[in-house]
Design goal:
This protein has 377 residues and is of the alpha/beta class. The protein has two domains: 241 residues, 3-Layer(aba) Sandwich (Rossmann fold), CATH 3.40.50.300; 105 residues, Helicase, Ruva Protein, domain 3 (Orthogonal Bundle). Helix content is 44%, strand content 12%. It has 14 helices and eleven strands. The strands form three sheets. The protein has a five-stranded parallel beta sheet with strand order 2-3-6-1-7, sandwiched between helices. Strands 8-9-10-11 form a four-stranded mixed beta sheet. The protein is globular, with a radius of gyration of 24 Å. The relative contact order is 0.11. The C terminus is likely disordered.
């Protein structure tokens, strides 16, 4: 929250000296709908205050009817180390506003490295073989497919934009500048109700070199979190400088905001493990409704999952894999062998140097049985 407070301080109003009869207005306060979006994003996106602030600010401008005419509602470039939540921020925005994290038109730019492949996006011109069979990925009906009665917004994600071909670059520049795309059959597509997000790994190697000398492959300690503000500033400078070296000025000038996602520290990763463990419990409720049981992950087990799942160079992704391998797969074994019953409470712990978690089933008399080394092969 410190980052957000700093942003607000920079734009806080001041009363001019010598002026009287003026009512001070607070331009940092958002409306109810934008505030609701901000609250949801803080719950879904961990540790990325700047990204949340920029998305909410753009949404508030749209709600006020003050978005620039003839352009998309917002053009964002997201940079930063892998696993820090660049794509997740887009998914979370769609989930918060449309109720569906998959309500996104996602373009994997790595699939469009050759100019002829652009036909997948805009369709083939009339007269070309397969013209009628080619369904453009960026047709108006595709763009509008996730609109709801209350929210007429589209979310378009160009992933790994640095891999785009020249033809895709030319197409993208037109969208960013005029909010218009001409399909192969000369139909026009209107992007004026779209938020355009682009992600890039440009500068990732330099960012990793900033993180790894200090943090390497060890479990982060409280001392590591103290370097976060300095590390964040260095990552931001490195990312923006790399973008300026890679991308042409005509592209950068069409962006509303470049956001460099910060490396995740101790606090953020602990919040992420809370979210992931809640998701595991939700999966149990969905998959085992007739044999519902409850999971109690103790502090020792959480610490072990963090130890096994953290490499700060790769963000939260290794942590999710560790939870699948060390918690979810053993639970599935216990379920398949009938060792877990309806309404059981399963306590998960970790002992010493064991490479596995330990699972107990709580009983009324607290005479528990223990399963050691229950792990997927």
């Amino acid at each position: 929250m410190k980052d957000l407070a700093a942003i607000k301080r920079r734009i806080s109003p001041r009363i001019p000296e010598g002026q009287t009869g003026l009512a001070l207005l607070d331009a940092t306060v958002t409306g109810a709908k934008a505030k609701d979006l901000e609250t949801k994003l803080h719950r879904l996106v961990i540790g990325q205050e700047e990204a949340i602030h920029e998305i909410v600010r753009t949404y508030q401008t749209y709600l006020a009817g003050l978005s620039p005419e003839g352009r998309p509602i917002g053009n964002f470039l997201f940079l930063g180390p892998t696993g820090t939540g660049k794509t997740r921020a887009v998914e979370a925005t769609a989930e918060a506003l449309l109720g569906n994290s998959r309500a996104i038109i996602k373009i994997d730019c790595g699939e469009f490295q050759h100019s002829h492949e652009i036909a997948k996006l805009i369709g083939s011109p009339p007269g070309y073989l397969g013209h009628r069979e080619t369904h453009p990925m960026l047709a108006q009906e595709v763009l509008n497919q996730y609109h709801t009665d209350s929210v007429k917004l589209s979310f378009v994600l160009f992933d790994e934009i640095e891999k785009a071909s020249d033809a895709l670059w030319n197409l993208l520049l037109g969208i960013l500048d005029k909010a218009t795309l001409t399909l192969g059959d000369n139909r026009k597509v209107d992007f004026s109700k779209a938020l355009i997000f682009m992600t890039s790994n440009i500068g990732a190697a330099e960012m990793s070199s900033l993180v790894s000398p200090k943090l390497g492959f060890h479990v982060p300690t409280s001392d590591d979190s103290n370097c976060t503000p300095t590390l964040t500033a260095k990552l931001s400078r490195t990312g923006i400088e790399a973008a300026r070296r890679k991308f042409a000025p005509e592209f950068l000038n069409r962006l509303d905001k470049i956001v460099v996602f910060r490396a995740l520290g101790n606090e953020e990763l602990n919040r992420i493990i809370d979210i992931e463990l809640d998701l595991v419990q939700q999966r149990v409720q969905t998959a085992a409704a007739d044999k519902l049981f409850f999971i109690d992950v103790t502090g020792s087990a959480r610490k072990f999952l963090l130890t096994e799942g953290i490499d700060l160079r790769y963000g939260a992704r290794p942590l999710k894999r560790a939870i699948e391998r060390l918690l979810v797969q053993p639970l599935s074994n216990l379920m398949a062998t009938g060792q877990i019953q309806h309404h059981d409470r399963i306590r998960v712990t970790h002992n010493g140097e064991s490479p596995f978690l330990t699972f107990f089933r709580e009983t009324d008399a607290w005479e528990s049985w223990k399963t050691n080394g229950v792990a997927a092969a």
